[in-house]
Amino acid sequence: MSEVNTLERLAALIRSRRSDTSGKSYTSQLLTAGTERCAKKFGEEAVEAVIAAMGTDTAALKAEAADVLYHLLVLLESRDVSLDEVLKVLDGRMGTSGLEEKASRTKGAS
After folding, report:
1. Residues 25-56, buried b or exposed e (16+ Cβ, 10 A)?
2. What pTM was estimated for this model as a whole?
3. Record's Gene3D superfamilies (predicted)?
4. Which of 41, 48, 59, 88 lies 20 to 30 Å (CA to CA) from residue 67?
């Protein structure tokens, strides 16, 4: 199973949780709380990933990276942005030097 397929399946599961009203879904609770809460949680997880990256425990970094990916997908769903749309942006950047691509963006849009 490819990693992209895993992300696609996770994004679809997150999308389906939007309509879960049982109160038993963490994902649904995040989405109901709104984009600001989703963004804050993503930020917290990103910081935890940075801290893990600075350490020596590779398993901790993997776990935190998985949390970052999950919370990014929740954040995207909160704004109705699909994983496919993000992947298309990345695909459009393929073959372009990262330095050139960054320089081509309008100032402040990094």
Report:
1. bebbebbeeebebbeebbeebbebbeebeeee
2. 0.84
3. MazG-like (1.10.287.1080)
4. 88
